[in-house]
Specification:
The chain has helices at 4-10, 51-70, 73-89, 91-102, 106-130, 159-173, 187-198, 213-222, 235-245, 270-282, 302-314, 334-349, 384-387, 403-411, 426-435, 467-472; strands spanning 17-19, 22-24, 31-35, 42-47, 134-137, 140-146, 149-153, 176-180, 206-208, 228-232, 251-255, 261-264, 294-298, 353-356, 374-377, 394-400, 418-422, 440-443, 461-462, 475-480. By secondary structure, it is α/β, with parallel strands linked by helices. 54% of the residues are buried.
Length: 485
């Protein structure tokens, strides 16, 4: 099998965008390097778009919208099911692309990144097949209609997963889309455009333009013929998108930053609560917006927590992401590596107790954006590492004396994306979950549910993704009175 880079290079995809059902040359000549985070070497260069490329893509999506919106839901569901099948057929190609472009360990790319991305397409297809677009309410009909042309802006940390989480429900709703993937991890997005074409999605329904947020993202957000923008990214990026979108009063859905708590109640079985909590905080090398990076634990059990947390970290193997034995690869890019190092230093300066890890690369890894899985304990809520999103393998352990104090610590953040609660008394676990200001709460490490709506409170954003609610984000509601008279 050809490598993903060989396939894209030989097909000429790196120098082109996918617009109106064709691979087209960009308007300008700007290029950006795609850097391998494991070696710090340039893998390739990709074309970067500009406002003219955005204009071409938006106009293609606008032309395609009436026909796509008018297709029978069963037809759209069949196209999405075909897209789901193609992604699974090429799962290994996508997994290798993720390892190259953002350093995901190949074993994790195979077991999480790709199959979970495929689930968003399956769920979108299945929900669409049974969704009632017209509902009676007395003599009134409540009608849900596609909102129109949607600009989709996706991040570098879960590249294909975030693409399918937006493209799947948007196409299911009957919208047409223009996608701007991260220019830092664009390979899986280009492969996705190939399977969109092969799945027979009509021309103009899906369009892809690579580029920077400042150029392409801003042009998409401000475009008067874009009806909605959906962005997953930093809170700062979400604010810029909302500002650009405001003059045209378009809908903006934002899935932004997080500083998620993992609240361990006094009656929790620590042997079941702590190791999975450490694993969840460090999944994807900590580069997950909802990672539970604040571990809130009873002060009287701190020594036991330390022992279990250290044992969990000792099982992690940081190294070459192409090695199937590696559990944690490099951080995805240089900027993120420097950010993590800065935040580890901030933890030390604020007086947090360093339990594991620390600054610098792991021993034996002199090249690549590798960081040491780091645990700080005796962290207070006013410390930088307790308040700012680090987006790396850094876990803060915050002790508490009462459950009321623990809930206050959990809510002492500008974010509210994800949360976890661990405990034996299910009634207490539920009661605590009800008081946490977060868009999603996990109780005792449940299985992932692709139908569970996902989104944030406070500065973690607005709107929801996944499941039926994720599809409804791309719809308008119309009431027709006297419809059933």
């Amino acid at each position: 099998m050809r490598s993903p880079l060989q396939q894209l290079r030989q097909a000429g995809r790196l120098e082109h965008f996918y617009i109106d059902g064709q691979w087209v040359a960009p308007d300008g000549g700007e290029r950006a390097a795609v850097v391998c985070p494991a070696s710090e070497e340039t893998l390739c260069e990709i074309a970067l778009g500009n406002a003219h490329d955005v204009e071409r893509a938006v106009q293609a999506a606008r032309r395609a919208f009436p026909a796509w919106a008018a297709t029978a839901p069963a037809q759209r569901a069949a196209k999405l099911a075909r897209l789901h099948g193609l992604l699974l057929e090429r799962a290994e190609l996508f997994a290798q692309a993720l390892t190259l472009e953002m350093g995901a360990p190949i074993s994790y790319a195979r077991s999480a990144h790709v199959p979970l991305a495929a689930e968003h397409l399956r769920v979108a297809s299945e929900n669409l097949a049974s969704y009632p677009f017209i509902r009676p309410r007395g003599t009134t009909a409540i009608v849900r209609e596609p909102i129109g042309v949607c600009a989709l802006i996706t991040p570098w940390n879960w590249p294909i997963y975030q693409i399918t989480a937006k493209v799947g429900p948007a196409l299911a709703a009957g919208c047409t889309v223009v996608l701007k993937p991260s220019e830092l991890s664009p390979l899986s997005a280009l492969l996705f455009a190939e399977i969109v074409h092969e799945a027979g999605i009509p021309a103009g329904v899906f369009n892809l333009v690579n580029g920077s947020g400042a150029e392409v993202g801003a042009a998409m957000s401000a475009h008067p013929q874009v009806d909605m923008v959906s962005i997953t990214g930093s809170t700062r990026a979400g604010v810029l998108v909302a500002q650009a979108a405001a003059p045209t009063v378009k809908r903006v859905a934002q899935e932004l930053g997080g500083k998620s708590p993992n609240l361990v109640l006094p009656d929790a079985d620590l042997a079941r609560a702590i190791p999975p909590g450490v694993a969840a905080a460090f999944r994807n090398m900590g580069q997950s917006c909802s990672a539970p990076t604040r571990l809130i634990v009873p002060r009287r059990q701190l020594d036991q927590v330390h022992a279990l947390a250290l044992a969990a970290v000792a099982q992690m193997r940081v190294g070459d992401p192409a090695d199937s034995a590696t559990t944690h690869g490099p951080l995805a890019n240089r900027a993120q590596f420097l950010r993590v190092q800065q935040m580890i230093e901030a933890g030390l300066e604020d007086g947090a107790r360093l339990l594991a890890g620390g600054p610098g690369r792991p021993e034996g890894l002199e090249q690549g954006y590798y960081a040491r899985p780091t645990i700080f304990s005796e962290v207070h809520t006013d410390m930088v590492i307790a308040q700012e999103e680090i987006f790396g393998p850094v876990l803060a352990v915050l002790p508490y004396d009462t459950v009321e104090e623990a809930i206050a610590i959990a809510n002492d953040t500008v974010y509210g994306l994800g949360a976890h609660v661990q405990g034996s008394d299910q009634d207490l676990v539920r009661a605590v979950a009800a008081r946490i200001q977060s868009g999603q709460v996990h109780l005792n490490y449940p299985a992932w549910d692709p139908q569970a709506p996902f989104g944030g409170y406070k500065q973690s954003g607005n709107g929801r993704e996944y499941g039926v609610e994720g599809m409804e984000e791309y719809m308008e509601t119309k009431s027709i009175l006297g419809y059933y008279a």
